[in-house]
Amino acid sequence: SNSSSSTCKDHQQPSINNNNKNRVINLDHGDPTVYEEFWRESGEKTTITIPGWQSMSYFSDVSNKVCWFLEPEFAKEVVRLHGVVGNAVTEDRHIIVGTGSSQLFLAALYALSPTDSLEPMSVVSASPYYSSYPSMTDYQKSGLYKWGGDAEKFEKSGPYIELVTSPNNPDGCVRRSVLNRTEGLLVHDLAYYWPHYTPISSPADHDLTLFTLSKATGHAGMRIGWALVKDKEVAKKMTKFIELNTIGVSKDSQLRAAKVMRAVSDGCELQGDGESFFKFSHKLMSNRWKQLREAVHRSNGLFSVPTFSPSFCTFFNQNLEPHPAFVWLKCEGNVEDCERFLRGHNILTRSGTHFGVSQQYVRISMLDTHENFMHFLHRLSTINSR
Ligand code: PMP
Questions:
Q1: What family is reported (predicted)?
Q2: Distance of alpha carbon 202 from alpha carbon 102, whole angstroms
Q3: What's the chain's average pLDDT?
């Protein structure tokens, strides 16, 4: 279609307007359905068939002394993809697979907390922090670890775990640890350290790093994440946690993940027919952010969003601006509760209070379907004109 002309866009908007005023636009979760369009096109390249007799055993690789449920095929593609993208060092690292990086997050807390301590280990992260960290840390009232709140305000002496999310959920900022004490243990959650969201500056080289396919390729439903771990004993304890928790990680999912990751790496290396996944997703995110900034600009100061300066991306070999997976929107002026205000306009978002900051902020997903995103932009514009 000839959607590039602005008159054409104007013609499309009234139909959205007339039919869907009361439609609820839910952008509370970060469900990455935006990439479905790309994967539909990939066909056989990302399809696997699993006969009934396959993947029956609990065990994947008994020769792996650190993680016996890790599928070698999957491990190979993890190493290859990081090599192709240049976003993490994999040499001398132990790979632990998890049911999403969520399971690995809990495995990391378990592995890093001393068992003989009189009180639980404090778990902290600089606010605004990913809203699931406090609840995931405390929901089982563990004796091993306990949520300690905003890292910037953490004053207790002794050992602690600091969660460093970079780029950060919700605000998209590049981060490093804020507490630099010798007793501190770090968990780097690099769920969004991929070229479509942020310029790749150098291969991450930390003690314990978490990645997830959910945000990398958008396959959240596969529930596959991985940890790159330096210390062998920590890696073994993480394996132990997953053993106690789910006796391993779905082989079917690992094999499917391997196939998808192979297609991504092939697409980047061969560059022959068709577009690589990151080129596609980068262009898409770049477009969305451009449209969003235009909509916010039209609000005449009712809303504001963060601005980011460009930096060099070693993957795309050029200076690029970040395009975070979420908008960290602020209601300016006299709107106090931004989440409630937008809910009044049938837009569901997540309040800043979940991330440890004020209710003037909300987090809005940028990864929803094209249809929902277009409705959202249009709805924002109608708020502005009032
Ligand atoms: N870490 C961060 C920062 C996230 O945003 C998410 C997903 N919202 C996760 C971890 C969990 O991802 P998953 O369990 O799907 O791998």
A1: Belongs to the alliinase family.
A2: 25
A3: 93
Using a pLDDT cut of 70, give the percent of the chain over it. 93
* CA 55 to the chain's CA centroid: 28
Please check the confidence at residue 30 and state whether its pLDDT lies above 80.
yes
Q: List all residues 6 or more positions away from 259 whose beta carbon is below 8 Å from its beta carbon.
A: 46, 47, 48
Residue 184 near residue 159, CB atoms below 8 Å: yes
Query: In the CATH scheme, what is the code of domain 6-39+275-384?
Result: 3.90.1150.10
Distance 354 CA to ligand 1 centre (A): 15
Q: How far apart are the first and last CA of the chain?
A: 32
As to burial, measured by CB atoms within 10 angstroms (0-12 exposed, 13-18 middle, 19+ buried), residue 171 is buried
Q: How far is CA 93 from CA 12, 111, 204, 257, 323, in A?
A: 51, 16, 12, 20, 29
Q: Of 17 and 29, which is predicted with more confidence?
A: 29
Give ligand 1 pocket residues (Cβ under 6 A): 30, 100-102, 130, 165, 169, 189, 191, 212, 214, 220, 225
Domain residue ranges of the chain, discontinuous segments joined by +: 6-39+275-384, 55-269
Q: What separation in Å is there between the alpha carbon of 295 and the centre of ligand 1?
A: 28
Question: What is the rounded (10 degree) CA torsion for 42, 43, 46, 49?
Answer: 180
Strand blocks (E) in 192-264: 208-212, 224-229
Q: Print burial letters for 202-218: b (CB count within 10 Å at least 16), e (below 16).
A: ebbebebbbbbbbbbbb
**Complex ipTM:** 0.99
Q: Which fold has domain 55-269?
A: Aspartate Aminotransferase; domain 2 (3.40.640)
Which residues lie across from 160 on neighbouring strands? 122, 184
